Amino acid sequence: MNEESVCLRSAYADEAKDRVRVVKTENSVCAKKVVDRICAVKTEDCVCAKKVVDRSCEVKTEGSVCVKAAGSRTCAEPAGANRKGIRMSEQFISDNIRYIGCDDKDIDLFESQYVVPNGVSYNSYLILDDKIAIMDTVDRRRSDEWKNNLTAALDGRKPDYLVISHLEPDHAGTIGQVLELYPEITVVCSVKAAQLLPEYYDPAGHPMITVKEGETLSLGAHTLQFFMAPMVHWPEVMVTYEQKEKVLFSADGFGKFGTLDTEEDWISEARRYYINIVGKYGAQVQKLLAKAATLDIRMICPLHGPVLKDDLGYYIGKYDTWSSYRPEDRGVVVAYASIHGNTAGAAKYLAEKLTQFGEEHVELMDICRCDMATAVENAFRYDRMVLAASSYDAGVFLPMEDFLIHLRHKTYRNRKVALVENGTWAPAAKKTMTGYLKAMKGIEIVEPSLTIQGAVKAADYKVLDEIAKAVHEA
Ligand code: FEO
User: For FRET with 142, which of 136, 170, 226, 389 sits at 20 to 30 Å CA-CA?
Assistant: First the structure.
């Protein structure tokens, strides 16, 4: 055992005894390496913070390279991955295709489950030609603002068509008001949407066109062509390709969390959005990508997030990776659910060992406290994962079980996973975690695993070293 290892082990053991206490051993190598946001350790010139970041904490080392490199929400992505957020003023599409959507910065939870620190946008568009088409509406939370946008863009004219790509209320929340305001407007939607529409609104008396795969609708110089996209993300979804200006109205596809005036890269919040909202439907997204590949697309107008105008291959490539369940980056998620801190100490030790092996991306996640959607996002992003959890009620500690249930729902697959359990008198976490993982496709369990009983002992650290090596080499 070298000096650094001794130091590391004692630091984690100390922390396990008292999780609130700030670990500060400034002369030791380990203090430079330990970043635990729960403990609010700040080691501004540290080396280790470059590699290990636990998102549940609030460490701020702004001058440090490490926070930037560790993949937190504010971090730089790998080279070539940066795509700046696009401001509202850049939502200009063309003279005849106008953005009329709205930002929502007040929402607490999107879909009542996803934290959106930078809000979300509900996108809607207007195509002006001999005929005028509204492309989706917005959440009713922003209906007044949206109607003002619509009225301004119409400039005294009346809309002829309301194209419904998706009936989920974050886009369809204002349909009722449109039907009331414009009784003669023709609703254009898929056959499935026509079936589902009465569950929200009474379309009786309104003209309706149900469109099928590849059918077109002329507005004058502009022609809309419709392609069905069932389960991306509801069964009635369709996308619309405008042939003249070569614009794809992509429904939920290529969307992201965050309002349009948010300065952030597209990738991180687009990934969290995709994996958690559409991630289960990879096969359906693949089918849609195959259809998109036959079109000459110059611009993508999603229902959330910025209009995408440049380097569209980048965004389409990301969707291809995500929907085919391929890891996006080489890296390790170390996810832990610890009751009294011993399992947490083992997980942090393991994460640090992985960085010592040269792993560039190690995401240490306290499943009891972090954003679940971010944990799921990271699990999909990287090729390997370590799960460390306490035993509980003859099974696994419930926050870890919740994480596994989320992964199962999103059809997590094709990854390598190592296991650490803790259980003082009847360890059962590993068996439960293994049960979940074995029911998933293409999961390889990396050996060895470790059973800790209570505090982490010298023999346990030895096995943690072996696990770190095996995961690094997997
Ligand atoms: Fe943005 Fe599936 O609604």
Answer: 226
